[in-house]
Each structure stands twice: as structure tokens, then as C-alpha cells.
Amino acid sequence: MARCKRIQEKILPKSAQKTFLLRKRKENKCDLSQYVNTNENYYQFDVVLILLVSDFVIYVLEIHSG
To answer: What domain of life does the native source organism fall in (predicted)?
Structure first.
């Protein structure tokens, strides 16, 4: 889990993470406060998906560079 956290911090700084996810869902911060409980799983899934894609890119670059 710590490895995922480090990769996540490299990809998106903490201040940009919320903004990125909000922009993707086309919601503003006021709407988010009303739907925190219902949308929490969707936002967690977005972060996991970003981490999986970043892991894939890292592996491809390592294989390509030898």
C-alpha cells in the first residue's frame, strides 16, 4: 500500500488529486459535499485505476529501456 501511495504522489500532487477527480466527474466542490457517501467508492476506483495505469507504464518503460 505504501508503494501505491508513493506512485500516486508522484503522479498527482495532493492538491491536484481532488481537482482532477472533480474535473473528471464534472462536479463542483459544493455538489461533492452532498454526495460524499454515495460517490466515495467511485472516487476510490478512479485512484486505483490511475495507479494501475501508472504501474503498467512503468513496467513498459522498464522493459523498453532494458
So the answer is: Bacteria
Domain-wise residue ranges, the chain = 2-65
CA distance 60 to 57: 5
Model pTM score: 0.33
Angle at 31 between CA 30 and CA 35, to 5 degrees: 125
Q: pLDDT tens digits, residue range 4-46?
A: 666 666 665 555 555 555 555 555 555 555 555 555 556 666 7
How much helix, strand and coil, in percent to the nearest 5, is found in the chain?
90, 0, 10
6 burial (CB, 10 Å; 0-12 / 13-18 / 19+) is exposed
Residue 39 contacts by C-beta under 8 Å, 6 or more apart in sequence? 25, 32
Which among 63, 60, 62, 27 has a CA at the least distance from the CA of 46? 27
